Amino acid sequence: MRTLLLLLTLLSTLINANAQAESTGNDIRFVKNGSSSAPFSTLVEVDGLIFLSGALGIDPQTGKLVEGGIEAESRQTLDNIKASLAKENVSMDRIVKCTVMLADIAEWPSLNKVYAQFFNGNYPARSAFAASALALNARVEIECIAKR
User: Fold this and answer.
1) How many CA atoms lie within 13 A of 11 on its CB side?
2) What global pTM score does this model have?
3) Residue 48 needs a FRET pair 20 to 30 A away by CA distance; which of 30, 41, 57, 89 works?
4) If you ran DSSP here, which 8-state letter would residue 100 be given?
5) Number of CB atoms found within 10 A of residue 143's CB
6) What is residue 32's DSSP assignment?
7) What is the DSSP letter of 81?
8) Is 57 a residue whose pLDDT tops 80?
9) Which pLDDT does position 77 carry in this prediction?
10) What's the domain range around 64?
11) Phi, then psi, of 23 in degrees rounded to 5
12) Is 3 inside any structural domain?
């Protein structure tokens, strides 16, 4: 009897552990931006984490990089990130990590001036580096991870 009880307890534990693993979900959702034929997703969501691809300062109305240098591009880039998250009903305060790529690391202070305006003082973890070139000759590209 004791052996049977032990086996039933073990079986119950295994069933519960398996049910918990299934309930956490391993679903991956890929979201592609409009009609772009580029081989990447605009965002990918896995277990409540939203991974945004690198965003540039492209004006959604014209499809072209905004003029005005690093500050204008930084503002548009962050506006584009904000819009991508808004489509998912997620706000900027849910961003936990950003990676910033700059065409010129000397423009770091100008980026920071704009960047700070998009967060309420709880800044995401961030890393940055200079690149020898960015797509479309952009000055800045930013990718982010947010938590739903």
Assistant:
1) 6
2) 0.81
3) 57
4) E
5) 15
6) -
7) H
8) yes
9) 98
10) 26-147
11) -75, -20
12) no
